[in-house]
């Protein structure tokens, strides 16, 4: 009997200790902000860029952040439940595939502020946001057109969806503006992150005679693989200059923190609430500094290539004959104004089949950009869903 | 039989209680080992476990989430138990599950069946598709003696790429702006949920019914007898006139069909569309192999093992959100639990008896044929 009593006592003490550690009501008053990521934070691409921005937000604003990485699409709703359970009052979901789950969660939690990246469905407590690269790809295209010697530039694409097609077309328009003979050879990976597939695609493009590379894939594989043959490339999403300092010309860099800081400041100031987000859509570009041209922050063009870009000239209607280097600077200046003075998708533009896609005098709207399917002239290779 | 100090080690069929004791000890050992990881990560292990227990079981809305991954694991797992009992090593539940998702999507989006008949038709189509996907490897094995581990595994990749092709190609929905999804299913193809949860209960009921039905089938029917005999001794089965072809085909039809039902549940109860195969299934067909293995040939035991995995998945999610741990650490945690559980399998073959020297020896354990799949004979 005695030892039984002592055993019960032990059990009670253990349970008491355990219960003592269970977090009870949170004393902190900071706004809790949750982030749901589609990939691992170390992916060196999309998710990493969002996470870098999350950490900057936490440093600069009086908020506390929570994140969940590698979330499968079917589990976005339960993870939102758990974040709300942890006290999150603002939740960012950062993948297109999370759209329907976020819409459903926004209905279930009418007092929580939601924002969904890259989607098109909004609600009174659900905003949308996107930092888009199409202008930057156009500028990279201008440089690629000037630097190719084989007149074949390559593009390794993730999925043939409007977002990637838009970037590829902008890149192709830039290439052909400087070099009307060039082709833009395309390979699709059907994957956002796949170093093996990216390696294979790069090797295939090298075999086709491609000597300058751009891509949409969340690893530096294309850069590393093309650098082995001393071929040039443009960094994608993260600063990738260090992976091939002699071959990376420029690239696309993102600054999600500009959007997150702006959005959360407005939430903190009471300007954005769970009641007035129906029309809040961030479509932020160069002018808002949400994206940047560069091989790494502050290095717009790798100094190794400046002289070649300065010695290649191009005839333009607007500026007369000037070097590609100067053209890039002028275009950046034009697109850094708000509203922009120049847009790569200003008509007239025909697709590669000769069909007029943007009539003269018209510039593509955001709605048209986010649903575009056609291929620009010079694009060579398969194009699933080509109209 | 072996004497170690005052203990005697007998070999033989483990009792249910012994299985539970060893498994619980294994999980406890895994918790201690994982506690080391928590500690290395800068967390107080006791605090970490308290948070995990609270947020997995007690937090509002958390408990039902355990059962969402349980549903596909139960269906696919119970089918695998049947196949393993017949010594047919079906590694292809993932592919059979995906075949089920394709058939269900086909019915939901591309047939005129609407209204209350939609869901039964989807389940029927999913069962048939899963069964047929499992049939080809069994025919290859029976007719040409091709190793079924290889063929069932390879059929998974065919299914995976087939789904991938469908959603990026012919079945890509006009309403999804070029992304790789089909259109959303019509409302009549959505499985009802238990209110306040995300448990698509018709699939769960199917899983429980199937577990019970397969238990009865194995224990009480002629086919069950044939399966058991063939599984334990194919030569004897042939000798007593059991038709190996018929038995194996029926087993694989049921096994593949069950996995196909799991696939229907995922598209009709969770996603409401067909999408990238790696997003549809989260590897349930592979995890179901461990679910079936731990169930040790007993269909009803999958109710426990599948729930255990639901719990493991759920606690992994909690670690990510409540403890802000990286995704990979949660995988390590889950891996440790499995490592210890499967590692403890070997211990189950022994019974420890208190037998100090001089005490009368108990009757030696008679040679019992190990019940497959025990840890003895992979």
From TrEMBL, chain A:
ABC transporter substrate-binding protein PnrA-like domain spans which residues? 31-299
Q: What is this protein called?
A: BMP family ABC transporter substrate-binding protein
Output a single Gene Ontology CC term carried by this record.
plasma membrane
Its keywords, alphabetically, are: Signal
Q: Pfam families from the entry?
A: Bmp
Query: By its UniProt entry, which InterPro entries does this protein fall under?
Result: ABC-Purine-Binding (IPR052910), PnrA-like (IPR003760)
Give yes or no: UniProt keyword Signal. Answer: yes
Origin organism of this chain? Answer: Candidatus Segetimicrobium genomatis
Q: Which domain of life is it from?
A: Bacteria
Keyword Signal attributed: yes
- CDD domains, per the entry: PBP1_BMP-like
From TrEMBL, chain B:
Keyword Membrane listed? The answer is yes
Q: Which Pfam families match?
A: BPD_transp_2
Q: Does the keyword Zinc-finger apply?
A: no
Q: Supply the InterPro entries for this chain.
A: ABC_transp_permease (IPR001851)
Where does this polypeptide localize?
Cell membrane
Superkingdom of source: Bacteria
Residues that span the membrane, as ranges: 20-41, 66-84, 96-113, 119-136, 148-167, 199-219, 240-264, 284-313, 325-344
Q: Which UniProt keywords apply?
A: Cell membrane, Membrane, Transmembrane, Transmembrane helix
For this entry, the protein name equals ABC transporter permease
Topology within the bilayer: Multi-pass membrane protein
Name one cellular component (GO) term. Answer: plasma membrane
GO MF annotations for this entry?
Answer: transmembrane transporter activity
